[in-house]
Amino acid sequence: CRIMAITSAICNSFKVEILQGGHNFNDSSGAPTGNTYKIALFTSSATLSKSTTAYTAPTDASASPTSTHEVSTTSTGYPSGGNTLTPSADPVLSGDTACVKFNDTSFSSASFTARGCLIYNTTAVTGFTTNRAVCAVNFGADKTVTSGTFTIQFPAQTAGNAIVQIA
Questions:
Q1: pLDDT value for 3
Q2: Could you tell me if 54 and 122 are in contact, meaning their C-beta atoms sit under 8 angstroms apart?
């Protein structure tokens, strides 16, 4: 019996890719304009961790469960691949820690259960994998919405709080 789990972590591949120029978190007013990031939701059967290198679309997004254990597109209010994230500001320093902040994102008229998520970069950059993983997050418990709005709130853009931070 193989136990699957979502472990909250910055992905190891991301750590290398930022040093190679594979990620830009500037907002739309930044120079250069930042990459496009998405957030995909997963069930408790998914395996996500620091070893995750890329988002992989399920072979059938409407299957329940999907092959990757991503929330199914037949679940009301969930688009294939998740929602696009919008950086709320360019990255900043908080003390000696670089921090990123995204605007909160919502799934409207939704009915599904999610245990965690993967934030990933969808911008094609020559020499890099598509849909590069940034971080995996375990919500701590299954989160269920029934005919409502499922909102992901991002923490402050400060050291010790930001969703993505490099110390």
A1: 52
A2: no
Residues 6+ apart with CB under 8 A from 41: 70, 71, 78, 82, 107, 112, 114, 116, 117
In tens, the pLDDT along 35-44 reads: 999 999 999 9
The structure tokens listed for 87 are: 């950086």
Contacts of 38 (CB under 8 A, 6+ apart): 55, 81, 82, 83, 84, 85, 119, 120, 122
Beta sheet of 9-10, edge-to-edge order: 9-10, 132-152, 105-121, 37-42, 83-85
Phi and psi at residue 53, to the nearest 5° = -110, -25
Centre a 10 Å sphere on the Cβ of residue 2 and count the other Cβ atoms it contains.
4
pLDDT band at 73 (very low <50, low <70, confident <90, very high): confident
| For the chain, percent of residues with pLDDT exceeding 70 | 97
Q: Rounded to the nearest 5°, which phi and psi values hold at 95?
A: 65, -125
Closest residue by Cα to residue 119 from 82, 91, 93, 158:
82
Assigned token pair, 155 = 């923490």
- List, for residues 85-118, the tens digit of each pLDDT value: 999 989 999 999 999 999 999 999 999 999 999 9
- Measured between alpha carbons, how far is 46 from 88 in angstroms, rounded to an integer? 29
